[in-house]
Specification:
The chain is α/β, with parallel strands linked by helices. The chain contains 20 helices and eight strands. It is globular. The chain starts with a helix and ends with a helix. About 5% of the residues have low confidence.
Length: about 450
């Protein structure tokens, strides 16, 4: 939702679904309404006639309020102003969510927040990687962790950690020649040196004379022969001279299928540290930290509500906080559960098309359990099929945030009590059985990785 027109389009969609308002009534009364602006919790509309205003007030006001609360997450009061069509002018620069989001981006940029170890939220999912990074940054034993290879799916803090290492090393020794580059930038610089400048000497000087080399998203060089050749020799020279090398990737070396074996073996010779999905406590801490940056006070129940539903990506948590701040400015009221629901719905709809995600989840689970997607949706009750079905229902509930009724419909029109039972059953199994927990995490990573492609 970027403009008031976008908001009202969603409001009308809500009003007309399931036959609440017929097409004729929509055409006569809802379509001619112009959503002018939000003033606090007042939604200001222009009507074309007094009759138009009376019909809306007498027949559609409560439905419109219900729709606004569904879309925006907070209650609004309707204020209807009668104006002739020719008098109605759209604001030249209307208030909209996009402008507010841009302002929030600036707030983050100007906040006293940097990618340091002090600002990194440590939890069970990242404490090993954090410990390894702080050890390298302090220089605890030369070449103990060389190279240091950090991997995780996107959005879990790899760039924060690698930048924190650079920051800490520079603070301890300002004379260090620390070179940071992304895998993509390294490739592009090499291409420019070879094909445009036809001279690689400056390129070699830059990277082979580094005291510390940090490469973010090293997976980008896989499958690029010239880049791998250049990086191989750069790596060897630095390693032989005892220089520290730190790398990040979205997958471990063994999963880089187009990476040369000689490079893979060097990556695996050092320390490999992975970052898994953040646990509940870590997610809540991240939400609170991001809110502090925007001077936003989030009630405990709202922070926990978000943390319980956005589990796979720290950037999603940050996005949720930004959207909450935008809604707070529009509503001029404290963040609420209903606001959080609206925010989460926007994020998940933007990033995960629900029908595709459900199919992917069922397909992944069926592969793991050796059954078919049709089995999972069927009425069959054999042990493997029943277990697979419960896991699939749990994952659909956790990842898509679909309603219980909608989830039940996806699984052979089962009622909501069956869905609730399956979710609770798997939650209990995860707590008791490490193998179940690992399986759930593996499937989740695969599904989310495929959704991002």
């Amino acid at each position: 939702m970027n403009t008031y027109e976008d908001v009202y389009a969603e409001v009308k969609a809500y009003c007309t679904q399931d036959g609440k308002v017929g097409k004729t009534a929509q055409s006569l009364w809802l379509d001619p309404l112009q959503f002018a602006r939000l003033e606090g919790t007042d939604a200001v509309f222009y009507c074309t006639t007094n009759l138009h205003k009376e019909v809306i007030e007498n027949n559609y006001e409560h439905l419109l309020q219900e729709a606004f609360e569904h879309v925006l997450g907070f209650h609004v009061n309707l204020r209807l102003i009668v104006m002739e069509k020719e008098e109605i002018e759209k604001p030249k620069i209307p208030d909209n969510f996009e402008e507010i989001q841009n302002d929030l981006e600036k707030d983050f940029d100007n906040a006293e927040y940097s990618y340091t170890f002090d600002t990194f939220i440590v939890g069970g999912s990242n404490e090993f990687a954090y410990a390894a990074c702080t050890s390298v940054a302090r220089g605890d034993g030369p070449n103990t962790y060389n190279p240091l290879f950090i991997w995780s799916q996107p959005g879990l803090g790899k760039t924060h950690l690698i930048t924190a290492i650079s920051h800490e090393m520079k603070k301890r020794n300002p004379d260090l020649n620390i070179v940071y580059v992304t895998g993509e930038a390294f490739t592009n610089e090499l291409i420019e040196a070879i094909y445009q400048k036809k001279d690689t000497s400056k390129f070699h000087d830059k990277y082979r004379n580094a005291d510390v080399l940090l490469v973010d998203d090293i997976q980008f060089i896989a499958g690029r022969d010239s880049t791998q050749e250049e990086f191989f020799h750069t790596f060897n020279k630095l390693y032989e001279e005892g220089k520290q090398i730190i790398l990040t990737s979205d997958r471990p070396p063994k999963d880089m299928k187009t990476l040369e074996d000689r490079i893979r073996s060097r990556f695996e010779a050092g320390l490999i540290a992975d970052i898994s999905l953040p646990d509940f406590e870590t997610r809540v801490a991240i939400i609170r930290r991001k809110a502090e940056l925007l001077n936003l006070s989030i009630p405990d129940d709202v922070a926990e509500f978000i943390a319980n539903r956005l589990k796979s990506n720290i950037r999603q948590l940050e996005g949720a906080v930004k959207k909450l701040k935008a809604l707070k400015q529009l509503a001029n009221s404290s963040p609420s559960i209903s606001m959080a629901q609206s925010v989460i719905r926007d994020i998940l709809t933007d990033e995960q098309p629900l029908p595709v995600t459900v199919e992917n989840i069922i397909a992944e689970v069926s592969t793991l359990y050796g059954v078919t997607p049709e089995d999972i949706r069927s009425k069959k009750r054999s042990q493997p099929i029943s277990s697979a079905r419960k896991v699939a229902i749990y994952l659909v509930h956790e990842i898509t945030q679909m309603t219980l009724a909608s989830i039940g419909a996806e699984f052979g029109n089962r009622d909501h009590s069956t869905v609730v039972y399956a979710v609770k059953f798997v939650e209990q199994q995860i707590k008791k059985d490490p193998n179940m927990r690992d399986a759930i995490e593996a499937i989740t990573k695969t599904i989310q990785g495929n959704a991002g492609k």
